[in-house]
Amino acid sequence: MRVLFLGGEEEAKRSMEAGGGGRPLPFFFTPDWPTPGDAGDGDALVAPAARFLLDPPAILPLPVLACGPAVLLPECLEAGCADYLREPWTLRELEARLGCLERASIALRSNPAGPGARRLLRLLAANPGRAVPRDAIAAALGMCSTSGRAIDMRVARLRSALRSIGKGETADLLVAEDGGYRLGAGASRDGSRRRLV
Question: Is 107 part of any domain?
Answer without folding.
Answer: no
